[in-house]
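User: We ran a pulldown and think these components assemble together. Before we commit to crystallization trials, I'd like a predicted model of the whole complex to look at. Sequences follow.
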Amino acid sequence: MKNQEIPYKTYLTEQELPTAWYNLRADMKTKPAPLLNPGTGKPLTAQELTPIFCEELVRQELDNDTAFFPIPDEIRDFYKMYRPSPLVRAYCLEKVLDTPAKIYYKFEGNNTSGSHKLNSAIAQAYYAKQQGLKGVTTETGAGQWGTALSMACAYLGLDLKVFMVKVSYEQKPFRREVMRTYGASVTPSPSMETEVGRRILEEFPGTTGSLGCAISEAVEAAVKNPGYRYVLGSVLNQVLLHQSVIGLEAKAAFEKIGVKPDVIIGCAGGGSNLGGLIAPFMGEKLRGEEDYRFIAVEPASCPSFTRGVFAYDFCDTGMICPLAKMYTLGSSFIPSANHAGGLRFHGMSTILSQLYHDGLMEARAVEQTSVFQAAEQFARCEGILPAPESSHAIRAAIDEALRCRETGEEKTILFGLTGTGYFDLTAYQQFNDGLMTDTVPTDEDLARSIVALPKVPEE
Amino acid sequence: MKNQEIPYKTYLTEQELPTAWYNLRADMKTKPAPLLNPGTGKPLTAQELTPIFCEELVRQELDNDTAFFPIPDEIRDFYKMYRPSPLVRAYCLEKVLDTPAKIYYKFEGNNTSGSHKLNSAIAQAYYAKQQGLKGVTTETGAGQWGTALSMACAYLGLDLKVFMVKVSYEQKPFRREVMRTYGASVTPSPSMETEVGRRILEEFPGTTGSLGCAISEAVEAAVKNPGYRYVLGSVLNQVLLHQSVIGLEAKAAFEKIGVKPDVIIGCAGGGSNLGGLIAPFMGEKLRGEEDYRFIAVEPASCPSFTRGVFAYDFCDTGMICPLAKMYTLGSSFIPSANHAGGLRFHGMSTILSQLYHDGLMEARAVEQTSVFQAAEQFARCEGILPAPESSHAIRAAIDEALRCRETGEEKTILFGLTGTGYFDLTAYQQFNDGLMTDTVPTDEDLARSIVALPKVPEE
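Assistant: Here's a predicted model for the assembly, 918 residues in total across the polymer chains.
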């Protein structure tokens, strides 16, 4: 059944845990475009950002040149509770697919937050603590990021205020309870606790909230409460920096078993997991040392890379955040309500957007029914129930492996298994009952949201 | 913060995964009493058991003498997808408790079933497959065992029919959907599919079911369908045999880091996890090679060891299963409905019962509010949301560590962290809202259920 020389799971030792995060921007010939102040149209300065974000995180956000940022010992100690994460050889999936391809996945779901989000949550919470802050604020939709952050804050004794989109707060009580168990205060958004919340509630008394509104409330709560800052779980450069620990570990594990991947696949919402997974491999490609294929996989219902435009846009639907140059569907774009698999962000990390624009990475969009088919097939042979988000990458990995069956190529495929689906069983139920459908935005839908892009001065 | 020489997590390599299960019975001077046929009062023979259980499993069930049963390669390959499981040093918990004690836990929750149950599920499914059977039947309450079995059956291509207590089927849809995703058929019990189900539905049209009734339906479905057998997730000798992989790995990991535990703690419902964890350590004690303290922790609302009697009793509330000699509260005992933490079985493994009777193990009962307090404290510093069942062991481990703080003793404590609490968030919510209460059966309650023990001939 398998080549006994390569284990099912390759673990690094705790001594081999990376000691520094890798900043991919340092090796990019064309740097990602800077964030702009929506009022002035000029690049945001550290001074403008520090009332919102922690100082060290602002430094990391703006630094396009330093290749390595040392990981503080306290963060490495926290990492040791759930890292290094395993690089898994998918022997059973290979057998089921009857493919000559060798499939590996880097599994980030073995922690209570159930995803890779914890890698950046502990870093952001740590720098807040170091700065002497009392606490942080954030928003959460389905709750994956909020859960990760609540674990990090509980560990450090930092206060956490989560604004959770009201409809999720009511319909996904389990995520909410995990956050509460970790001591976070969780407020359904819109709330009466902020000016923007009160204004929205007055205008739309029956609203069930939106991520854009929750972001606005979280930012306001951070700015107006002394000793608080706002933190965000994806999209930002700092988040991709922290998530580089995924790729660094994967690369070291491959070196340990003497294997080099040919294709590297990750799902893409805001880009935090994909950016982290590919970072050191992409670095080699940028420096001309090695070549790899990279594939970003996005939902057909929210196809930023494959059908968006590369332009400056707001990061939030509320249009209060900075402007970022990225592949975007327009900040007013809302993916269809039937899309269950996360990855609902209209834009994309500026780093990944630049790499894609420069032809260094491929992208493809997949429909959700085929994503859940891949999830089911994977779960049944590999024994892990994957998150719907991660299953986008599984879909593409299976497709690549099936192509190898046709061509006879023995390619080595690596994909990121970002998390587990234990809190996504309503979506699985829909799939099990045969009730899942696919919706793809029409060209008219996209034209409507893309036309609304903000005007910015020419660079 | 910590002694850098001992890692947070000690993993064995896949080569070091045990090659044989250890049968503790082989080293017991007083063997566990045999199962009796409730009709004849005589020990059950292999011939009587094979219509219900697979042949190899019957052999394992009845063998009190063979010390080691080789683990087939196919089962070891499956184990490699989620084993060896880590032996974790609870550095953060030690720091929070400010104790000189060294705390370790063996973590069995890093698999999609979320518990140790998978260790026996794959073994039982494997032997069914080997015997050329089409499928197996079982019952499940909260769904932990059913989930594990559905994963094992999906992997082997074996049909699985789960009778799920109707109230759980309706109130815990997520566990049900995991089983369905793994291809199991899940029927709410009582159902119209069995004679016993139809009879019960006729008598009690509005019933929401019981574990006793689900067992009866699963056994009937196994016996009446050619090519099917019945499987069970705890209590039985064969289950403790398979679960010995937990203890064997823990012992090997301790040897790797040069540590010897003083106290070994596990939660006890039917006894599968505790029996598996302590097996090789208890073997050393029985052979006079080493000494350890063993502590079984049970809920105060279902206190088989601490307030039950050591006598022959039915294993099921429906009184159709064999009689087992064990610590029991009487098969008619039902723990209070407010008890959220599992471990609701009225009896106990015959192996553990004999060991406790012979003074080789201690037992204590803990109340559920204090169990959830321990769970919360553990989750916040160690980053894992524990299952309520496992949290009984955490409670006792914390209590032992706090005692060490008083006495200054540097004891080494090992406890079994059997699983995660991702599907128990309704109970956590109750706790977070301050609505959790404790109920303990009165002496009169116990007198009522214990007086109903069956009469069996004197041995």
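Chain A touches chain B through 47 residues (CB under 8 Å). That may be worth checking against your pulldown data before setting up trials.

User: Thanks, that helps.
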